[in-house]
Amino acid sequence: MQNIYRKRKGGFWYIDKTIQGYGRLYESLRTKDKTEAERRAIIRLAEIEKQTVYGQKKVITFGEAVYMYVRDYGHKKSIDDDLSSLKMIIPHIEQLTLEQVHETRLRPIKAELLKTRKASTVNRCIAVVLVIMKHCVRTWRDELDRPYLDVIPHIEKIPEQDKKPAQVLTAMQLIALYNELNDDYRDFVLFALHTGLREKTQCRLRWSELYSEEGAQFFWVNPENMKSGRPFYCVLNSVAAGIVNDRRGNGSEYIFPSVRGGAYWKFNGKHFNNARVRAGLKGIVTWHSFRAMFATNLRRIGVSEEDRKTLLDHSGSVTSHYSVPQIMYLRNIVERLADEYPIR
Fold first, then answer.
1. Which of 74, 236, 280, 283 has the most C-beta neighbours closer than 10 Å?
2. Dist. CA 253–CA 256, nearest whole Å
3. Do residues 106 and 123 make contact, with C-beta atoms less than 8 angstroms apart?
4. Cα–chain-centroid distance for residue 254?
5. What is the H or E stretch that residue 258 is in?
6. pLDDT tens, 98-130?
7. Mind listing the pLDDT tens digit for each residue in 64-100?
8. Are 6 and 12 in contact (CB under 8 A)?
């Protein structure tokens, strides 16, 4: 077959052909076998003929759309979460064309996933699927500058009747959990209780973000690691500061590094899950419980709603720099929590 050739480097076959109404087609056929290369070239030319002569759109699979999503949006701070959510549904729809990804096709898949996962987990997966489909309509184009899909399909979310608010632990429950944790995780939990940081933010705390003013230590957290997308200062009381100081010289850029020295993706992993099972707290405690306990204790000791919002990054204001008087004021508030927990 003309217009295909094999590159010496790598040994893969390529097609190089100029097509009227399309232009130059130059791409790898992704095979080292000549017979298979000829077969793929014929199929590819037939696809282009359908597009240029008969006006048909280029047909791609959902798996190919996922590849484009990672290629173009791999820089997103949520990309790891997105891919984790997609893992559960990719085996079911990877080979489907975009036109085949719709509510009727996904309804039995959602029902199957609900047997082992919560509705909120499945809904997060559906949300990522819809984001990818949106880009197929609004962002990405084929070789003839046409969208891969005309309309974003309607895919229904599942009512989250199984969703529960984060539960505040009793003193006995907290002690039972703490006793089942290793030394590292005891630090992780104590730090969360005394700062109220979200799990992902705490996982990514860096030494370069740690500052000290007039004896008060705080983290000036990069907005890319905050759910709000705003810069945030996390002020440390004596307990949280002690945990940080004990971890100096850990050989990592992160305050709470994983065994390999990098950042944890999440703390709510195998060790934590096993510990809460042994403590009899499965289905009761989540990592968000510690943030809820921080907020509850602030309210209990009489901290104003405005100050609670500031400490929890709920204020809605964007701060481009830190204020030393404000740091000292917040340090005095969180210091009141130093003796509020039954563990230390």
1. 236
2. 9
3. no
4. 18
5. none
6. 999 999 999 999 999 999 888 888 999 999 999
7. 999 999 999 988 877 888 998 899 999 999 999 999 9
8. yes
